[in-house]
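#help-structures

NK: newbie question. if I give both the sequence and a SMILES, will the prediction place the ligand too? trying with 2-acetamido-2-deoxy-beta-D-glucopyranose
OV: yes, paste both and it writes out the complex. here, I ran yours:
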Amino acid sequence: MAQVTSSLSAVFLYKHGMVFDCKKMMTIVILSNLIAIICTVVAHKQWGIFSHDPVNGPGLLADPSLKFAAVLFRHGNRAPEISYKTDPHINFFPEGKGELTKLGKQNMYKKGKIFRLLYNGFISDLYLDSEIFIQTTNVTRTFMSAALVLAGMYPPKDYQKWLDEETVWQPIPINQNSPDHGLIFRENCPSFSAISKNLLSYKNEENLTELLSYLSEKAGQSISEMDLVKLYDLFECQISAGLQLPEWITPDKFQTLKSIVLHRKRLDNFFGNSKVQKLVIGPLLKEIALTMELHSNNSISQNKLRKMYLYSGHDISLATVKGFFMNTIDMPDFGASIHFHLYLDETFGYIVKIFYYDRWNTEKEEELPIHACGNPCQLQNFVKIMKANFPRGWNEECQMIEN
Ligand SMILES: *[C@@H]1O[C@H](CO)[C@@H](O)[C@H](O)[C@H]1NC(C)=O
Ligand SMILES: *[C@@H]1O[C@H](CO)[C@@H](O)[C@H](O)[C@H]1NC(C)=O
Ligand SMILES: *[C@@H]1O[C@H](CO)[C@@H](O)[C@H](O)[C@H]1NC(C)=O
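OV: that's the protein plus ligand as structure tokens.
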């Protein structure tokens, strides 16, 4: 990119008679190439991924023993869900509340390139419906994130270029009705309504009253306990968009707000709750486990099964998965992903591993221990755990109110 621009500017200068002298021209060319090299080096440092672009050879996770991969990812950067009266950036997000931003689009496109880097060879570089299946929750930001990830993963090649001119994109189906219930707060689910308020309440939080009156005064409107999560989220969205918070959100105040909203006990309470787990990720984990089982059952011709599932979802979905496997819960950043892998191991047979990438541009995975499953985690144990923890369907679970 930088190379193209700098050569173009040299041509522009030349065409307009500003550079006649050959020596000068050489200097400009050398200088502009130098700039291009520096830019490329900076880009490598910043993005990492461009060093592998275009991807040739096997992906970093494309081990021959890998038989199936399911990837749950959080959508890209989005606009805040609310605004407040004195918000200086009230007009900064023309996309609308909660929608994917331009930065979010760029990041998810790059996330798709990282998936290509990880899985090249495991999935072919032509898009094949028989290999991969994509599902999304029912909001625009997850639909769009899925589309961008796929654009990054599947730049049209050879036969799949559908126009003579450069084609940077090809259509790939994105399916609704994801088993992921990361949008549970919007869904009609009585048993969730019955427990969520209590699980998320701020009990005996130090400094809460003082903070609320401070925020209300500065925001020019009443800020209640119920607004805190969305207000904190608004600040996070603005920071990630490169905006400056107003002076009255001092680092101290921000820290206090964060420590209240993301209090470890509060997160553990919520995401560690077995009813929340049943409702938010039960159907998703069961689908993944049963698909793995299907892959391991020799009776079914394995090449009829898709090798990869993608789920475009939410921070709540990812955090609940982490909670279920008893891993530390930090709210996942935009573009974070959890990867469920089924391997056919020479010694152990079918085993399951889970990897975590904490944000969109993380290239190095962290393996998440699968508590209660053993190490290695045998597929049959994994399936047993899922069946035991998620015995009922979602609708039935929603009607079963627990005390
Ligand atoms: C998806 O969301 C749209 C818009 O909010 C709504 O009209 C539609 O009924 C939803 N579809 C499903 C399957 O929930
Ligand atoms: C509450 O405020 C006090 C005094 O400002 C501070 O020392 C303490 O760390 C705060 N507590 C929390 C949980 O932020
Ligand atoms: C796999 O095979 C086992 C044993 O035959 C069977 O009990 C199970 O239901 C099969 N699983 C799937 C997902 O078809």
